[in-house]
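User: I'm putting together a teaching handout on how multi-component assemblies are represented. Below are the sequence lines for each component of a complex, exactly as they appear in our records. Could you produce the 3D structure of the whole assembly as C-alpha cells, so the students can see both representations side by side? Please keep the chain order the same as the input.
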Amino acid sequence: MSQINIAVIVGSLRRDSLNRKLADALARLAPPDVAFHQVEIGDLPLYNQDDDGAQAPSVLRLKAEIAAAQGLLFLTPEYNRSIPGVLKNALDHASRPYGKSVWGGKPGGVLGISVGAMGTALAQQHLRNILAYLDVAVLAQPEAFLQAKEGFFDADGNIGEASRGFVQNWVDRFIAHVKRHI
Amino acid sequence: MSQINIAVIVGSLRRDSLNRKLADALARLAPPDVAFHQVEIGDLPLYNQDDDGAQAPSVLRLKAEIAAAQGLLFLTPEYNRSIPGVLKNALDHASRPYGKSVWGGKPGGVLGISVGAMGTALAQQHLRNILAYLDVAVLAQPEAFLQAKEGFFDADGNIGEASRGFVQNWVDRFIAHVKRHI
Amino acid sequence: MSQINIAVIVGSLRRDSLNRKLADALARLAPPDVAFHQVEIGDLPLYNQDDDGAQAPSVLRLKAEIAAAQGLLFLTPEYNRSIPGVLKNALDHASRPYGKSVWGGKPGGVLGISVGAMGTALAQQHLRNILAYLDVAVLAQPEAFLQAKEGFFDADGNIGEASRGFVQNWVDRFIAHVKRHI
Amino acid sequence: MSQINIAVIVGSLRRDSLNRKLADALARLAPPDVAFHQVEIGDLPLYNQDDDGAQAPSVLRLKAEIAAAQGLLFLTPEYNRSIPGVLKNALDHASRPYGKSVWGGKPGGVLGISVGAMGTALAQQHLRNILAYLDVAVLAQPEAFLQAKEGFFDADGNIGEASRGFVQNWVDRFIAHVKRHI
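Assistant: Of course. Below is the structure of the complete assembly, with chains in the same order as your input.
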C-alpha cells in the first residue's frame, strides 16, 4: 500500500531557517505510512497574471507536487506581522490560472516557530484567511505557535525533550485530520 | 519650493493592471505642489534573509526611492483574500535588514480597485495590519474600495464622471494627511 | 431516525434583521432529515469572568443548545468592519469557563448578508479566526457574501429566484460538510 | 490651562482584570497636563439597532464621555483570538446611529496585557481594523503586547522595575501622538 504524501511548504528561504529545521524534525515524527516532502518555492518567479497562459517550469513543478499530495503542511515565520511575501507568492502561483488552482479540497495544517510565539501567531491568522479561500480544510486545533527557546532543537536537530510531547501530539492530530479527509 | 514626493506602490505586475491604471489616473488629480512617482517592484528578487548583508541593486533602488518620499500610496488588488505576494515581497525587502527599514514614520494611504469591491477590502485589511507594524501612519477614513464598473475609467484613462468626485475627495484627504505629518 | 440538529446563531438583535430573515429562509431549504433551530443570544448578560462559577440561566440555556447541536450555522452582519459585539459576547459566554467550552469539534458554516457584500466579508474574516480557535471545523468554500439587493427575498420571505440556486447550493454543501463530520 | 482628557476603555469587566490594573498604573505615568479617565462599559445593554432612536442613558453617558475626550486609550485582553464582545459592544454603541458616531477623528492608542503576549497581539490586530474604520488615528509604533509575568506590577500596583522603562516610553509616545493631533 502506498504512503500518504504530505507536501510541506516552508515560508522562508533562509538556509538556516528555523521553520525549515522544524520541517526536517517533523518529518521524523511521522508514522511509516506517511511521508513528508518539502516543496521548493525559492525558484519561482514573481507572480504576474500576464504569464497565466504560459506558467514557468518551476510553477508547473510546484503545481504538480501540490496536486500529487494528499495533505498540505505550512510552516510559516512572521515577516512584518503577516506571512512572508515569498510564501504568498507560492500560494498565488499555484492558485492560477482562474479555475486551475491545485489547492482546493485538500486537508491542511498550519504551524510555525519564531523567536517570540506571537510572531508566528499573527502570520498564521492571515494564512488561515487565505487558505479558507483556497478551500483548504485547515486543522483548527491544536494551534502551534512555537517559540525558538534554547533547547527547542536538540544537537541532532530533533525536537528537544521539553517540547517533544506537544509537537508529537500536533503531528498525530494533523495526520488524523488528513486521514479523515482522504 | 520643491514638490512633495509621493512614492506610489502598485501591487500588481500585470501590464493592464486596473490598479496601475488607477495610479496613473490619481497622479493627474494631484495639485501642482505634489508629485506621484510609481516605484518598480517587479525586478526584485524573492526576499531571502541570507542576503541582508548584500542587498541587490533593485532592492537598494527601492529603498532609496522610499527613503526619498514624503508620503506613501499603496494600491492593492486582492489575490486569494490578501495582498499579492509580490507586494508583500517589496514590503519585506524595504523593511530589512533589522533596524534599517525605510518605511517607518511616513504618512501613507491605502486604496485599491477590484472587480468586486469586496476583494480589495479584504486585501486592505491585511495591508493595514502590516503597515501599522512598519510604523506607517495610514489615513483611516475615507476608505476606498473601488469597483471596476463600466465607465470607471473614461476613454483617456481618467476617472469617469460617476466616480470622479469620490476619488478627488480621497486624494485631497490623503494629501492633507501627508501634509499634516511633514 | 432522528433529525440532524443545526444550531443557528444570528448576529443581530434587530427585529427586521436581514440575517434573521435569511436564517428563516435557509431553514426552508434544508432537507427533511435536517432541522435548523435559531438560538437566542439577546437575553445574555455582558460576559464577565467573575461569573464563570455561576453562569446565568440564559448562558446555561445557550450552552445546552449548542452542546445538543450536531452542526453550527453563523449568520453575521458587519458592524464596524467586524462581527457585532452581541455575537462575540455569545461566543465568549459559551466558551467558558476554561475547559468547558461547548463549541469544540463541531462542524460549522459562516455566511451573511449586508447592504454591500463587502461588509459581511470583512466580518466573516474575523469570525473565521475566532472559530478556528474555538475548534469549529468551518466549511471553507463556497463563501457566501450575500448582498441585500431588491428581490433577494420574495414576497413570502423565501430566497428570490435570482439567488435561489446559489443559496440552495451553499446549504447543500454545508449539510454535506456537517454529515461528513458526524 | 485645562488638562488634556484621555478616555480610557478597558475591555474586561472582571474586578481584578489585568488590563484594569494596567490602566490604573498607566494613569500614574501621565504628565500633569494629561488626565486619564476610565469609561464604564459594563452597564451598557446589548446593542440593538431598533434602539438607535432612543439610546439608553448608559449609552448616552458613554458617548458624552468619548465626545469630551481629546484622545482614546484602549486596553484589550484577548478572548478567543479577538477582542472581548463587551468591548466590541461599546464600540458599536458609540458608533451609532448612522452618522452620529463619536469616535471619528480622535487620536488613539492600543495596548494590552495577557498571560502570553500573543493573546493581546491577536486581539489588537482585530481592534486596529475596527478603529481604522471608526476613523481613529491609532499610534502605529511602538506596539505594546505586554505579558503578565511575575513582577510586572509591584506591590503598590505600579509597573515593576523590569518593564517600567518600556511602558513609560509607550505612554510618552502615545501622549506625543495625541498632542500632534489636537
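A couple of points students might notice: The mean pLDDT of chain D is 96. The longest strand of chain D covers residues 107-114.
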